[in-house]
Amino acid sequence: MKHQIPLGSASTAQAVVQGPRTTHVRPVTSDVACKRLAFVNIAMIGGFGAGDREWVLIDGGIPGTAAIIARAAAQRFARNARPAAIILTHGHFDHVSALEYLAERWEAPIYAHPLEQPYLNGTRSYPLADPHVGGGLMAALSPLYPRGPIDVSRWLRLLPEDEDEVPAMPGWRWLHTPGHSPGHVSLWRESDRVLIAGDAFITTNQESAYSVAAQKPELHGPPRFYTPDWERAADSVRRLAALEPEFVITGHGPPMRGPGMRAALKLLARDFERIAVPENVRRAQAAA
């Protein structure tokens, strides 16, 4: 049984940026851009040429990418333009590995949900990944991925209790979308219906090394080998689908937009257990 929801090329993101597109970042709207770092994405919030403390970084990349992120930021904004904040969708290694370097370099606060705090202040590691779900090389290698914790407590701040308040991002909301991790959050801007979904759902088959390399656009649930709570993951996808976004940036895979994407997201939300939940997990749930 296939577990992806493939989309036609008409559903992939269209650049609508007012400034120039660069080789370093991919514009999604005039003030939202993303950059692929091997198999994971970061996002940058701020218009082309924004100055010091006038932009925000979303997530912190895989090991060895700190200098790449810094160069991309300098090209999109300005040399030595520091972010006002770094916002984390969650603390898995592929989203935080450049954090310590970047926070020190930029003297930038790092904001995360309170439930992610133990994985970011050196007190707790994530559970072991499950290589027996989904198949594929990426899943098979998942027990080798770092589980943390990292310690960026010097720079770490908690997101405000009010979801309508996102530090340095007026007009945005943060949404608690757990399942893939306890304190996973997504970011939503109602005015132009932009959704930064993190790994609540993704737009490539993260279990397959070929799909990760090819970046064929297709909707999936969160990466299976790193998702411990499938019931909450399903609730999170349904919450995000109900927003009916126009643009989505996910932690893995290309950005997408438009009615085809929304239809696929609604299908994923409606049939999440069949499409996204691993078969061995479904069997265990049925036997319980």
What's the layout of helices and strands?
Blueprint: E1 5-6, E2 26-29, E3 32-37, E4 40-45, E5 56-58, H1 66-76, E6 85-87, H2 93-96, H3 99-106, E7 110-112, H4 117-120, H5 137-141, E8 156-158, E9 172-176, E10 185-189, E11 194-198, H6 209-214, E12 218-219, H7 230-241, E13 247-250, E14 256-257, H8 259-270, H9 272-275, H10 279-287
Written account of the structure:
The structure is a single chain. The chain is α/β, with parallel strands linked by helices and 288 residues long. It has a single domain, classed as Metallo-beta-lactamase, Chain A (4-Layer Sandwich). 26% of the residues lie in helices and 18% in strands. The strands form three sheets. A seven-stranded mixed sheet has the order 2-3-4-5-6-7-8, covered by helices on one side. The protein has a five-stranded mixed sheet with strand order 9-10-11-13-14, with helices on one face. Strands 1-12 form a two-stranded antiparallel sheet.
Brief summary:
The protein is α/β, with parallel strands linked by helices. Helices cover 26% and strands 18% of the residues.
- Which structural class best describes the helix and strand composition? alpha/beta
Name given to the CATH architecture: 4-Layer Sandwich
Weakly predicted, low-confidence segments: 6-23, 208-214
Proportion of residues in helical segments: 25-40%
Average pLDDT:
86
CATH class: Alpha Beta
Q: How many DSSP H or I helices?
A: 10
Q: According to CATH, what is the topology?
A: Metallo-beta-lactamase, Chain A
Strand-residue fraction?
15-25%
* Sequence of secondary-structure elements: EEEEEHEHHEHHEEEEHEHEEHHH
How many strands, what sense, and barrel or not for the largest sheet?
A: 7 strands, mixed
Estimate nothing, just give the exact number of structural domains.
1
What is the number of E strands? 14
User: End-to-end span in angstroms?
Assistant: 23 Å
Gross morphology: globular
What is the spatial order of strands in the main beta sheet?
A: 2-3-4-5-6-7-8
The CATH homology group name: Ribonuclease Z/Hydroxyacylglutathione hydrolase-like
**Backbone CA Rg:** 18 Å
